[in-house]
Design goal:
The chain is an alpha+beta fold. The chain contains nine helices and five strands. The protein has a five-stranded antiparallel β-sheet with strand order 1-2-3-4-5.
């Protein structure tokens, strides 16, 4: 599950330059920019060889700007978000963003010829929240259903959850973070994330 999340989250999220375009259907947005990201990975031998600088730069440019980090942070912390101070909220978002960057950068470096099928979008033109359904096809393996939950904020669509084979990324993190907060408190969770991020940076 964890490795699948890493791949699909990195491979299919939208590119920042396209999100600024108004009135582009979210499914078209996902497909066109997913193709762009995968094309970059396929052509760049340095990324395929594990060049961390290039991998992180690609993830930073093409993936992270397309998350609604404020909403995702509130969702993954649940009731603990409102209990946290402003300083704790800011510190958590900083470390959580770094965690996401590491996750997607790792995934980009592991791409190996997977392909993506896109399901027809079932939504009304006036909808502000939609689900884009896709399917990851792996050589020699069963297809993996991946659903993207997006919200329209202003003129841009932003991702706030990813559901893989029925399992929500937000719910997955909420369980992990709630457990850590029960054991060590909010500051303990933030420090654990900071330590992991620092260790990865080394």
């Amino acid at each position: 599950m964890k490795s699948v999340i890493k791949f699909v989250a990195a491979a299919v999220l939208m590119g920042a330059m396209h999100l600024a375009v108004a009135d582009v259907p979210p499914d078209v947005l996902v497909k066109s920019t997913a193709d762009e990201v995968l094309a970059i990975v396929k052509k760049d031998k340095d990324i395929q060889a594990g060049d961390q600088k290039k991998i992180f730069a690609l993830a930073e440019e093409k993936i992270l700007p397309n998350f609604d980090f404020d909403r995702v942070s509130r969702m993954v912390l649940g009731k603990n978000w409102s209990r946290a101070s402003k300083e704790q909220q800011d510190a958590f978002q900083k470390e959580f963003r770094s965690l996401m960057l590491r996750t997607y950068a790792t995934a980009l470096g592991k791409y190996r010829n997977q392909t993506i099928n896109y399901k027809p979008l079932r939504a009304d033109p006036t909808d502000k929240e939609v689900t884009v359904k896709t399917e990851i096809v792996q050589p020699g393996g069963q297809p993996i259903a991946v659903d993207y939950s997006l919200e329209k904020t202003g003129e841009a669509w932003k991702v706030y959850d990813i559901v893989i084979e029925g399992v929500s990324l937000v719910t997955n993190y909420r369980g992990q973070f709630s457990s850590e907060i029960r054991q060590s408190g909010m500051d303990g969770l933030i420090q654990k994330l900071a330590d992991k991020n620092a260790g990865s940076a080394k």
